Amino acid sequence: MFHIFTLQWQRFRRKPLMVLAMIAMTIVFILFIGGANSEPQTMIPVSFSDDIVDSERSGWIDQLNELDGFKFADTEYEQSKERVALGNSSFGVIISEQHYTFLVGTETPNQSIVEQFISSLYWEKEKIDLAVSASGDDEASTKIEKSLKNPPIKVESVIGESEKDFFIFDNQLQALFGMTLFFAIYTIVFSLSEVAEEKQRGSWDRLILSPVRKWQVYLGHLSSAFVIGMAQMIVIFLMFQVLFGFDIGDKWLEILLICAFYTFAIVSLGMLIIGLVNKASQLSAIVPIVAVSMAMLGGAYWPIEIVSNNMVIIAAKAVPITYAMDALKSVTIYGNDLATITQPLVVLFFMGVLCMGIGINLMERR
Amino acid sequence: MLETHDLRKAFKKKVAVDDVNLYLKEGESVGLLGPNGAGKSTLISMISTLVKPTSGIVTWNGQDIIKQPNHIRPILGVVPQEIALYKELSAYENVKFFGKIYRLRGKKLEEKIQEVLELVGLKDRQKEVVNNYSGGMQRRINLAVALLHEPEILIMDEPTVGIDPQSRNYILEMVKKLNEEKGITVLYTSHYMEEVEKLCDRIYIMDHGKVIATGTKDELTGILSSEETIQLELDQSPQIFKKLLEEQENVLKVTEWEKGLTLIVSKNNRKLAHIFQLAEQEKVSIISVDVKVPSLEDVFLHLTGRRLRD
Ligand SMILES: Nc1ncnc2c1ncn2[C@@H]1O[C@H](COP(=O)(O)OP(=O)(O)OP(=O)(O)O)[C@@H](O)[C@H]1O
Ligand SMILES: [Mg+2]
């Protein structure tokens, strides 16, 4: 198995063009769709009216930044207006003592999430103020804040009717994840097509006659396709985090796990496709059809949250991309941890096992 | 001894190999001759345990190798009909990979690699990428790979197809040496008569999935001992003359070649005089007459009514 794995790398070094081309395509498309600005669109400029003294401002910013998925930054009013006008941020916020104002460029669902949050801050603050003035105790304010941080009973407020009604749309991460998952399909399936070519070429027969076991031959190919696919995705993620300043966050363990399960599912799907078509040459016709339709259904091109067609939503459930996108967004935008993404990972795993089983069976039957 | 008993392979509609019985004694060199689509590749794939037969068995020293392929695989060297190599790698890298697959390591591996490369005459150019090799050189590497693990039986599927005469002779000489000097048992598939004639002790002729004749070269040509082949060179298109000849009692078969006609006639009667008489009568002038000892080609023609390379 090891020799077959290393052989693929030896060969990859001689013709790395396909993988490099896929990485280049991914980069171009992400930049094109997601924009290359160094700050993400979810950066929201916050300005303060004069009735808020400088010392209170950073407290406001800290409180605002407790909302996951957004980055609030203290910005001069004029600059805020400019950012919003240029579309670098879809909206801005102006905080005053008694009220708040939105600077709106384009309507996005994100705005209502932020608004809900800010209004809750005001609501909380007002309660504290009332309590303070009623007791006449200056220290009461800090006491109450403390007790609010560790309440005896915590009431979680649910925004909207269901979570789906409000989602945070991060154009950059949407493009990054969507395109990366999409182009990885090509790399993985075309690397795997070596199995089909090997059979056509007759070198497969040589391997079968040798002391190497058949499962080792399969495993050698599968693992090399897996590693190439993983490497491509991780390289792109790192590149965009480091070079282009996309805010992926720091949950790399979760991201690695998602990539691994997704790659496994696609490797298996590749085996199924190769099992179904007879010739390696037919793959170049089939793979784009499969990849593009999966990307459309699974929300790689546009967020699946905006899809309202029930048929599409149901069909999306059969597509690995859906689960990988969901898990990646969950971890990065919403800051969730491993426990929340176990379900999509489990689904990806079973999809993989199923496709692999059918795929190898089809191949062996011929 | 390697034997097949009523070996048969049927694809959906087509019977590719039709109840074939053949055997291969140790140290023998056996040829398998047949036109395109005769079923040669399918037959030897079954013998090399790569394809499961529809029915029938293959045995090696009495053991069923379809059920127990591992009895024979370690001593089998198979040269596929295709160039079964990784073309973007060098000859050396290819040979090395297959050596490792056969669990050769370290010094022994390196020695073996150089030995087989030397044998096929490509030691000097081993660092070159296989893709840049000529067809003949690719074929030689294809053969070298099959020799790495010192097989006792070498099964070759048209190892010289589509290459220059020089490489072809090289390969033929090499295989002959391997057979004669190292005692390797050879099963050689081809649709070139002269290769099999030169190389093989015994020959099987296949057509449409069946073995239609078998024996040594002399035995096979003996089939034609009661017949003779006469080749006529004529000065004009022989259509009418051909018809006339076909009607003659002693003429068994008439075929055309570029410059005239080939006749198969029964032996021992005064056919030549008779033919000259007919030619004169039809005003066809005969430029030359050639009475030939029958070749395998003629045997094939006789058995199937077709030429080998149609
Ligand atoms: N996998 C297959 N499925 C269906 N038919 C097949 C298959 N393999 C071979 N055949 C058919 O079986 C017949 C014998 O094929 P085979 O390749 O054994 O012939 P061959 O003698 O090796 O010919 P060639 O000289 O062209 O190599 C052919 O008619 C071919 O079309
Ligand atoms: Mg063949």
UniProtKB/TrEMBL annotation, chain A:
Q: Where is the ABC transmembrane type-2 domain?
A: 135-366
**Transmembrane segment boundaries:** 17-36, 175-196, 217-243, 255-276, 283-302, 345-363
Please give the GO cellular component terms listed in this UniProt entry.
plasma membrane
Task: Tell me where in or outside the cell this protein is found.
Answer: Cell membrane
Task: Please list the GO terms describing molecular function.
Answer: ABC-type transporter activity
One Pfam assignment = ABC2_membrane_3
Q: How is the protein disposed in the membrane?
A: Multi-pass membrane protein
Q: The organism sits in which domain of life?
A: Bacteria
Residue ranges of coiled coil:
none
Keywords in alphabetical order, please: Cell membrane, Membrane, Transmembrane, Transmembrane helix, Transport
Q: Does the keyword Transmembrane apply?
A: yes
Against InterPro entries, the record matches this protein to: ABC-2_transporter_component (IPR051449), ABC2_TM (IPR013525), ABC2_TM_bact-type (IPR047817)
Indicate yes or no for the key word Cell membrane. yes
Similarity comment: family membership: Belongs to the ABC-2 integral membrane protein family.
Q: What is this protein called?
A: ABC-2 type transport system permease protein
Species, as recorded: Gracilibacillus kekensis
From TrEMBL, chain B:
Q: Which UniProt keywords apply?
A: ATP-binding, Nucleotide-binding, Transport
> At the top level of its lineage, which domain of life is listed?
Bacteria
Output one GO BP term: doxorubicin transport
Membrane topology summary = Peripheral membrane protein
The record's subcellular locations are: Cell membrane
User: Which InterPro entries does the entry mention?
Assistant: AAA+_ATPase (IPR003593), ABC_transporter-like_ATP-bd (IPR003439), ABC_transporter-like_CS (IPR017871), DrrA (IPR005894), DrrA1/2-like_C (IPR025302), P-loop_NTPase (IPR027417)
Q: Does the keyword Transport apply?
A: yes
Database matches in Pfam families: ABC_tran (PF00005), DrrA1-3_C (PF13732)
- Give the molecular function GO annotations: ATP binding; ATP hydrolysis activity
- Supply one GO CC term from the record: plasma membrane
Domain ABC transporter, chain residue ranges per copy: 2-233
Q: State whether keyword Transport applies.
A: yes
> Which family does the record claim for this protein?
Belongs to the ABC transporter superfamily. Drug exporter-1 (DrugE1) (TC 3.A.1.105) family.
What name has this protein been given in UniProt?
Answer: ABC-2 type transport system ATP-binding protein
Q: Which organism is it from?
A: Gracilibacillus kekensis
